[in-house]
Amino acid sequence: MSVTYADWVSKAQSKLTSISESARLDSQLILAHALNKDMTHLLTWPDKSIPENLIHALQALLGRRLAGEPMAYILGQCEFWGLTLDVNSDVLIPRADTEVVIETILKVVNDLGLEQPRILDLGTGSGAIAIALASELPIAKVTAVDVSSAALTVAQLNANKHRLKNISFVVSNWFDAITGQAFDIIVSNPPYIAEADPHLASLVYEPEIALTAKDAGYADLALLIQQAPDYAASGWLFLEHGYNQSEKVRHIMQQCDYQQVVSVKDLAGHERCTFGKIPNHG
User: Fold this and answer.
1) What CA–CA distance (Å, rounded) separates 16 from 30?
2) Is 273 in contact with 264 (CB distance < 8 Å)?
3) Which class does domain 5-69 fall in?
4) Label partner for 10 (CA 20 to 30 A): which of 45, 78, 115, 265?
5) What is the DSSP code string of 109-143?
């Protein structure tokens, strides 16, 4: 017996309601993905039958969502800064909250009149920050770093997808492989979740190496603040951090002689990004 698009979406939605606040949309996206069609096709032809050879694959995709796997991993992509990025379990899923980092950097670059900024993105993951900045600042020179070669493979694919030629990729544990270079902008969305944080239970599908840090989540934030002066020509450091970490991040920056330290709020009103002028220790 054939199953129509509408029937499958309705049944999938009823199963997903208990685990997803967007059960209908999830169901539609899974079906569109399996069919290799867009949402317009689904909405235009709700009574069209699903090919029988796709039913098993559809149920497998639905099973992954029912197990709690994020939609971005199931679909293999997500949107960030108006760009479609490929993602898999080697990288964190870019969040909308991170877009405040992009907005803040673009404003500072404009205010300072930096015509060809040298930008270093540490822990680039999918390349979201580096790619957004490279697309907005086509004559900038962007270096994207990650300790994971698997993550850098994803980032490189995303850069190629958007035909960006102004990004270079380096396998490095933070600054370790960065030599003989000075940057105007250093940016990072580092691991900042405490290792015992109960929120980790909802993030089991994402790479733990990109999520957690020692010292209650502050270890990598502090390391980047302390080491950035060796890699910047009186530039600026921008850090994404947890919703309740801004005060301590500002304190660490000020202790390390950063100037003009400011925290910026995300879409939910939480201070999500802190930046400051890197001291010149030369």
Assistant:
1) 12
2) yes
3) mainly alpha
4) 78
5) HHHHT-SS-EEEEES-TTTHHHHHHHHH-TTSEEE
Give, in words, the CATH class of 80-277. Answer: alpha beta
Q: pTM to 2 decimals?
A: 0.96
Closest by alpha carbon to 248, among 220, 268, 214, 218? 218
> According to DSSP H, which parts of the chain are helical?
5-16, 23-35, 39-44, 55-66, 71-75, 99-112, 128-136, 149-161, 219-227, 246-255
| pLDDT per residue as tens, the chain (282 positions) | 689 999 999 999 999 999 999 999 999 999 999 999 999 999 999 999 999 999 999 999 999 999 999 999 999 999 999 999 999 999 999 999 999 999 999 999 999 999 999 999 999 999 999 999 999 999 999 999 999 999 999 999 999 999 999 999 999 999 999 998 999 999 999 999 999 999 899 999 999 999 999 999 999 999 999 999 999 978 999 999 999 999 999 999 999 999 999 999 999 999 999 999 999 865
d(CA 242, CA 164) in angstroms, rounded, equals 30
Distance CA 282, CA 234 (A): 9
Domain ranges (residues) in the chain: 5-69, 80-277
What's the per-residue H, E or C state across 146-184? ECCHHHHHHHHHHHHHCCCCCEEEEECCCCCCCCCCCEE
